[in-house]
Amino acid sequence: MEYVTLNNGVKMPILGYGVYQIPDAAECERCVLDAIEVGYRSIDTAQAYGNEEAVGNAIKKSGVAREELFITTKVWISNAGYEKAKASITESLQKLQLDYLDLVLIHQPFGDYYGTYRAMEELYEQGKIRAIGVSNFYPDRYIDLVRFTNVVPAVNQVETHVFNQQLDAHEIMKKYGTQIESWGPFAEGRNELFTNETLQMIGDKYNKTTAQVALRYLLQRDVVVIPKTTHKERMIQNLDVFDFSLSEEDMETIKGLDKKESAFFSHYDPQLVEMLVNRG
């Protein structure tokens, strides 16, 4: 496994396992156990996913030493604000059966996220969290937060894949020292990513799948990725991306796939914002 070093010196695996949309407790526990067994050491969950307990059970049953694992969770909008965020993170620790978290992110840039961040800064100073950051923060809100808080976010987890490469946003994060992390590195299969002719053509050169090429492209751009699958064989396949490198020509070809827009939603859409803030 390769690692990135965050702005506070903490090392984070550049490739991890995400558990979004695995709400069934037994299924999630099985998936996390499989992921850890095949070599994943970074697990990404969130309060809103409803599976922190399952992740915690899997961690406990895995037999892997706590210090070898990198565990991320996220504070949801309904827990925004200093007091509620602090209580919710304590609850997340209990559900995950952990004494500390490696990374805590603000899940969405809505509600009193400044209060949330203050709570995270405090828990960070107390050693309950090793690194803090944000998720889904577009450059405008990201810069605003960076300039008016004490701790620069270690990570900003945003939709990043070959069709929405976040090249400009990535440069802004680099300027302030924040690591970009991709959610949805496969765009959840949208735009027919898994059968994309360009990715297939490049994959054939390296005897790799389109999914492996899509991941490798992001890794070579120093983007942390957390692909999700419920199939053990695909977990293994997603890890098998460190034995080849894309040429500069291939990187430029894939860069040309960038549509520079979300495959899912826009935070500038009022209906989307209403849906998110009304979600419990």
TrEMBL record:
Keywords: NADP, Oxidoreductase. The active site is at 49 (proton donor). Pfam families: Aldo_ket_red (PF00248). The record marks 74 as: Lowers pKa of active site Tyr. Substrate binds at residue 107. The keyword NADP applies. Residues 24-258 form the NADP-dependent oxidoreductase domain. Gene3D superfamilies: NADP-dependent oxidoreductase domain. One of its GO terms (molecular function) is oxidoreductase activity, acting on the CH-OH group of donors, NAD or NADP as acceptor. Belongs to the aldo/keto reductase family. This is Aldo/keto reductase.
